[in-house]
Specification:
It contains six helices and no strands. About 70% of the residues lie in helices and about 0% in strands. It is globular. It is mainly alpha-helical and about 150 residues long. The chain has one domain: NusB-like (N-utilizing Substance Protein B Homolog, Chain A).
């Protein structure tokens, strides 16, 4: 993957975190309209964020399954107490790990930690890393490689 592609994917993940954070607080009546308005407010054209839009769609479609995984892995932590921004970050990384076999799990974990440094605090970084590391151990695939 080129540096430009990596940067574009990172931008997509950041946009997905921002959108899913807002979505978790105030789910829209019409998702398509809400997404259009969200992407119109970005500094780059919507197609720049196509990867992020795939993540948003995947997280929303699979959020019950993803949230159940988080509940199981967040030992001794009430789901409702997880900060909404951390939940958005976790949901994206968990979606990638569960449904995007083309992305090595360690990439999803590293991106989640990097984004948490930008949007959350040091305690959140450790919390996110702990949950995702436990998830990685349950996947049954090489954490450093993409698969078919």
């Amino acid at each position: 993957m080129s540096k430009a592609q990596y940067a574009q994917r990172h931008d997509g993940r950041v946009a997905a975190v921002q959108y899913l954070y807002a979505w978790s607080i105030n789910p829209p009546a019409v998702l398509a309209d809400d997404l259009r308005v969200f992407f119109e407010g970005q500094e780059k054209p919507r197609d720049h964020f196509s990867f992020g839009e795939e993540l948003i769609d995947g997280v929303i479609r699979n959020h019950a399954e993803i949230d159940q995984q988080i509940r199981v892995l967040a030992q001794n932590w009430e789901f409702e107490r997880i900060a909404k921004i951390d939940l958005a970050i976790l949901r994206i990384a968990m979606f990638e790990m569960l449904h995007r076999k083309d992305i090595p799990p360690v990439v999803s974990i590293n991106e989640a930690i990097d984004i948490s440094k930008e949007f959350s605090n040091a305690d959140s970084k450790r919390f996110i890393n702990g949950i995702l590391d436990r998830m990685k151990d349950h996947l049954g695939r090489d954490a450093r490689k993409a698969s078919d």
